[in-house]
Every structure is written in C-alpha cells, then in structure tokens.
Amino acid sequence: MANVLDVVRRNQESLLQEWLEGIKGGIRRRDLIDDRELKSQAAEVLTMICDAPGEAALDNLNSPPWQPLKDLLASLSTTRAVQGFTPSETAMFILSLKGPIFGLALKLHKNDVDLLFSEITAVDDFIDKLALHTTDSYIHGRDQVIVRQQEEMLELSTPVVTLWDGIVALPLIGTLDSARTQIVMESLLQAIVQTNSRFAIIDITGVPTVDTLVAQHLLKTITAARLMGAECIISGIRPQIAQTIVHLGINLEDVITKAKLSDAFRLALERSGRSVTRNSKSNGPVLSGAREQ
Amino acid sequence: MTGIVNKTEMLPIKDSSDVVFVRQRVRVWTTQLKFSLVEQTKVVTAASELGRNTLEHGGGGELEISEVVDGIRKGLRLKFSDKGPGIPDIKLALSDGYTSKQGMGLGLGGSKRLMNEFEIESTPGQGTTITVTRWK
Question: Is this prediction's pTM over 0.80?
Fold first, then answer.
C-alpha cells in the first residue's frame, strides 16, 4: 500500500508543479492569495505527506503520525476562513491533489488493474478525509469569527453618553432579549453613579420590536435607576410601537415617555432647572457673511 | 380557521437566537404581503411573544408560517407547536397578569389582541398548538 507514497516521495518536485497548475486552472483566488504564498503552502503540505514516518497508513488518518499534517491543514483552513475563501475553495485546495497522484499511480501500475484500483481507492479515501478535515477546520474558524463578532457587539452596543451635567442617555439598538439586557442595565446604573446623574434617558428608536419581555426589562431598569435616585425617561417611541404596547396591555403609565430624544432632553433640562433659549434670530455672522459674497 | 393556504415555511424554535430569527422571518413575510408598518409591528410582536412561549413553556418546538387567501383578502398565519407539558387551564392562561413563570403575564392575551384570529389547542402532557392569523 505504501507504493504510491514511495513514488510520491520520489517525484515530490514534479508533483508539486502539477498540483499548483491544477489549483491555478481551477479555483485560484488571485485576489486573496499570491503565487508565492500558495506555492509555499502547497510545498509544506506535500512535504508533510512525504515525511510521514514509515508506519503511517493511508487508511488511518487519526493515527499519531498524521497529526502534524492535520494541524497544518487546520491552521491553513482557519486562515482561509478569515481571508474570505469559500468552504469549497478551501476543500478544493486539497482535493486537486488527487489528479496528479492518480497520474503517478497509473504510471506505476499500468499493467496491474487490480492493484491500480486498490491504490487509487486508498489515496482517494485518504484525500477525501483530508478535505473533510479542512472543511471542519474551516467551519471551526468561521465559528470563532462569529463568536468574536458577538463579543464585540455586546461591548459596542451599550454606550452610555452624557448629554449634560447630571443627564445621561442610553441609545438602545437591536434586540434586547438576550444576555445584552443585563449588560445594558449594569452599564447604565454604573454611569448614573459615576456621573452623579439625576436623569437617565433610555432611547429605544433602534429597538425594532418591543414585546412584553423587552418592556419588562425596561421597567426593571427604570425601577433600579429610581432606587439609586435617578429619574428615567423613555424616548424614541414610534407610532407603531405605541399602538403595539397598547394592544399588548403593557402599563407604562408610571413611566415618563417621549416620542423624541430631543423632547426627553428638554424635559430633563427643565426638571433640573435649566432652559434652552435662543438669543438671536439670525443664523450668526459666519453664514450671513457668506451670503453677502 | 378559514382560507386556503398558499405557501409555507417551517422554522425551528430551539433557543433564544431562534426567536430573533423568527421575528426577522415574520417581518420579511409581512413585508412581502405589503402589510402596513403598524400591522407589521403587531404581527412581529405577537410572533415574538408566542415564539418565546413555545421556547420557555413548551421547551422548544416549531413555527409554520403560511400565507392564506380567503376570497379577495390575504393574510398571514402563524402556527406555533410544541410537545411540552401543555396548558392545564387555557382561560386562566389567557387572562392578563397571570403568569406561570417570571414574565408579565401579558404575552398570550396581548397576542390575541394583536392578531385577528386566535386558536389554542392544548392537551396536558402532550403539547400545545397556537394558531394565529392576521388579515390584511
């Protein structure tokens, strides 16, 4: 069974050339990987196959001698997932090794069909398993990308901004019924303490669906903020959300709500003894000067 | 439940990210049926409530979304089914403020008000199927 492997070892150079040509003819992504990198990766994989110790059998990919090869392929696939290759492109990298090796096997056993067939079956099986392994690793790489993005989103999605002395705002965006709510609530309460705020505006313009769970989370946050001495105002209630809340039967009567963030801000300013006044009707000297030119 | 079913889609409800996906798919369907923004929001909210009920009380199940036609009017039908413990007292479950868990107790009754047709079939120990329809 090791016959083919021997021939592969002897013809490593020419095999590499054929393999690279096969990859270039088929699925190469010039935009994602350059010739030199592709060649060095292919050469590395081929060397790993050739350098496998004598006891490494083609029919048992899970045996320890193949572990370095599997690790190499795994890291290649993970990199490709990040670079933006498709799963089939990643798998084709390995699968296109079949043609050249079959060619070698054919030359070796031209006169013995039975032997040729069994050799080709073994190689075919081996390379299929390698390709499946790359696909698995590829998906694992993708999963890691997704997990990282999820974590980034959790961090990104809870910015508490200070609008004025003693007035903080929390613009909520996206779905509220996951682990996010807890983080949102904590960061708001934290910000209230840090900034000594008396008013907290929760803006839900970016929340697509307000159902009972979202409402319950909001009410809990408001109650907690109240216990800390801060008044909460909910803003960004769009008409369709207002109607839905009424039909659901959610009672928001104890909560101050406003349609727009600016209304909520104005109210918070008023309640804290401030007001916004306009000193002049003109647009200011810069603009009127521009008009004269 | 009247009307001829035109086309359907099945969605699994196995964890809370599925509930998010249910909302997104229902929103796409309501947009395709050219529901108004208010109607869209109502249907999506009801789907969110019932989907979460399927997950939390039914221990997971599935949703069948279908477009129904009755004469000249079109509508969207959502069928949530689970194989959970079932609802022992449907009348009590529908009353506002009653909750068997930690929620507000408004989901079921609220969904009924958000949709046009509402039907519960539940056998204790065998599961629950809730079918709701909103006509355009």
Answer: no
